[in-house]
């Protein structure tokens, strides 16, 4: 039986989403669930976006350097082709926010085919806005787990990922030198400070 947390005796195809800010343990939780499935002798396949090469080109690696083998892919259709017809019981997908909205349909199709789909990703970008397909994945999920880092400013539960470097690109890979987890209040203050600094710079350049 797969992680029977609520008394079920049968768990058909389903979608589980693990979300949160940077450094909250999303990938750690994904790896934990996938390794448990492997211990249970289930057939497991893991995918990640090819652009994520921070720790490894081939493996899914958490910030704590736990890892599991994976297949890097450039698009969601490659996930669908790689997952279907091979007898997999469990499909893992890391950094889901980097894929487009077609990931929602892919996850639904896999779940309707009887697979347990476990997805991990950032629910918000550096501006606190919903990120990529994550909002829709949260809506269709059978189970949602929101994990939290600790705010580096005040010690509260972190709400969002604040970008420390100047870039307006929504997608920017980074670690502790580029991002920090902040609670809602500290995140609001940080964004306001960023805006003041940007206005001051524009006035100076004029």
Order of helices and strands: EHEEEEHEHEHEEEH
Helix content: 25-40%
Shape: elongated
Strand content: 15-25%
User: What's the Cα radius of gyration?
Assistant: 18 Å
Structural class: alpha/beta
- Strand order in the sheet with the most strands: 5-2-6-7-1-8
How many DSSP E strands? 10
DSSP helix count? 5
Low-confidence stretches: none
Biggest β-sheet: count, sense, barrel? 6 strands, parallel
Mean pLDDT score: 86
Question: How does this model look, in words?
Answer:
- By secondary structure, the protein is α/β, with parallel strands linked by helices.
- Helix content is 30%, strand content 22%.
- The chain is built from 5 helices and 10 strands, in the order E-H-E-E-E-E-H-E-H-E-H-E-E-E-H.
- The strands form 3 sheets. The protein has a 6-stranded parallel sheet with strand order 5-2-6-7-1-8, with helices on both faces. A two-stranded antiparallel ribbon has the order 3-4. Strands 9-10 form a two-stranded antiparallel ribbon.
- The longest helix is centred in the last third of the chain and has 22 residues, at 184-205.
- The radius of gyration is 18 Å and the shape is elongated.
- The mean pLDDT is 86.
């Amino acid at each position: 039986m797969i992680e029977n947390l609520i008394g079920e005796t049968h768990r058909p195809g389903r979608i589980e989403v693990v979300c949160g800010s940077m450094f909250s343990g999303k990938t750690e939780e994904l790896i934990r669930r996938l390794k448990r499935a492997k211990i249970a002798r289930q057939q497991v396949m893991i995918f990640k976006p090819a652009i994520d090469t921070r720790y490894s080109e081939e493996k899914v690696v958490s910030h704590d350097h736990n890892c599991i083998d994976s297949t890097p892919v450039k698009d969601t259709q490659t996930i669908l082709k790689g997952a279907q017809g091979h007898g997999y019981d469990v499909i893992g997908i890391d950094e889901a926010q980097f894929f487009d909205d077609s990931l929602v349909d892919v996850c639904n199709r896999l779940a309707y085919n009887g697979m347990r789909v476990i997805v991990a990703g950032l629910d918000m970008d550096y501006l606190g806005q919903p990120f990529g397909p994550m909002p829709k994945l949260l809506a269709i999920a059978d189970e949602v787990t929101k994990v939290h880092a600790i705010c580096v400013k005040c010690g509260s539960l972190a709400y969002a990922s604040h970008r420390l470097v100047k870039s307006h690109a929504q997608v920017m890979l980074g670690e502790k030198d580029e991002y920090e987890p902040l609670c809602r209040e500290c995140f609001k203050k940080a964004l306001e400070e960023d805006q003041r600094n940007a206005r001051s710079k524009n006035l100076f350049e004029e």
